# Entry
Amino acid sequence: MENPRSFENIRKGLFKMKILMKSALAVILFSGIAAVNGADVYMSLDGAGSKDGSSLENSLSFKGDEASLQKAWDSLAPGSTLFLDGGEYPAKQLIVKADGKNEKELRKISGKAKDGKLPVFTGDWGKNDKDKGFTVFKIAKGSTWWAIENFEIVKCKIGVEIENPGNVSFGRIENISMKEMREGVIITGGATVLNPEIGSHDILIRNCRVEKYTKRGFRFKDGCYNITVENCYADAGGKEWATEAFHMGFSSQGGSEGVSDHDITFINCEARNNYWDAGEGYWNADGFCAERNSYNLTYIGCSAFDNTDGGWDLKTLNPLLIGCVALRNKKDFRFWSAEPGTVMVRCLGAYAFKRGGNSEETGLWTTGKVFAYKCSFVDNPYSIVFNNWHVTPEQEKNMKVLLEDCIATFSDSQKDTIARLDNVNSVIWAPGGRAGEAPGYANPEQGRKLFDVGKSFDSVELGPSKGYNSCWKNENLLEFGRKKQPLITLDGKRLPAASIMLFKDKNPSGWYMSGWKGCDMQIVKDAGKESSSCLALTSKGAGGAGYQTKRREAVVDLNSREKAKWVLQLGIKGAAGQNYNELKIRALNMNEEIKTKEVPLKVKLDGSVSDWQEVRIPLSDFLEDSKEEFDSFSGFSIRTAGEFKSPLLIDQVTLEPK
# Structure
């Protein structure tokens, strides 16, 4: 008889409990393949028979012309499938555009195995080509009811990506193997602060693998939701493939302020060998990571091995982990959330290992709150660590780790940490703490080198009553976990009209410097208002330079904020005796219909003042039409009129409400 409490039923229960899919239509989609309404189309490398695409024996020719694959897809009727015969294909991009209204109108492209081999798209992308290449399957913005399945992709920049701005729904990406890529799968949401529901949603990613990548395996961003990621695998390839900063296996990054990824569940996913060498600094590169703009993230039966930073590095609001295993990472589990914090159930963190750089290796690290139930933290140099770097006394006071029915082994140096723990019936081994200090696992040494721990960390002495145990798959842990970590709802509402920091010490993610005609802008260290880093504008003649972003998630969305008259504020510092002549500045925005103009940079730059000066310019001054308003802010540029012997320094750039 099927065990109603089994792991398989826990997985199925995700749908019944509407944890993932709020739409009944999505449940229908993901429970099976859609019925075919229209005529299917068949294609092979050289084509066959009449080449009309009516069957595999009369398949269209992929080689027919450069646009043959796109034409075949575009010809699909709602509810039909484009079948591609197995074999080797030169990689090209396919725009997957679909407008189905229900699951019967789902359009699909599907590889068919030939002599046991699926279709393989092979390109010429290399690991040092971050600015080159293309996406093989690009899902057109706004698409609905679509599926991509049964392909291999090799040496291409990106495997599957949702086109900006996103707004895609009811899709399936299944059985795709990707190797030697920059990124595997990118799910772009396209949500806004006031309209979170328009983000990409109700998407299943299942049985996909990404091996040897330079950036990310699976990326979620810009407010996507109701996503299931099942049986997926990300192996970055370690040091050999760490050509840019930096590897992430499964990454949920959210969007701009107020735009969150949410209700994403990872089931049986695995992340390995994410690597970044920062010398004596902090080595990043995580297996599973999530930024603060995310919530309702759930990880069930997932694993992280041999990453130079976190197995899990989660800043997300309320993560829930069930049956997760982290071995040989610098920080097996790293959690930041303080309210409500993190819940872990039947998880294992062991053999934490630092491959280089600073900071300690640990089974569990937190700067927030963690509730761990029947978890094991064993054979780590530091079993559990409370963050003590750049924290206030109040933050330190609020940090909390509650262990219930857990097993943890501590070194002699961690006696103070043991005293800080809230312990409910947990077993803690410390040197001299009890006779026979060995935890008594079935085969713990196996975990030092293998990836399937099986029963290796089942306690011989305590059985399933304490700590991690392989029996977790037969326990009703999702129901228990949800009682401890309820799902939350965040409604879209306007952000306050408050100061917005654009540059202080470093540029936010997505912001960059550029220059033209002999001008440049760079970040220089220790020259800022507070001896921090600042921007430095150099000029060899009449040109210009800018500080800006073109990333949608990094642009400041002023429409999403309470009404205000915004002012661009920045600190300016020139060198004594250096005349910077007449400089002009322009504010930038992403709306091409709103025309802006340059205005004089009104500050003493004739060499008579060498201290920091504050400049405040209303954004309205930059508008060609005074009746218009800035709906977004994406940076500024400064035009020069001559050569500088010393750079012009710029620091603490903000937008201020007036």
In short: The helical segments are 7-16, 24-30, 68-74, 393-398, 415-420, 477-484. Residues 1-8, 15-37 have pLDDT under 50 and may be disordered.
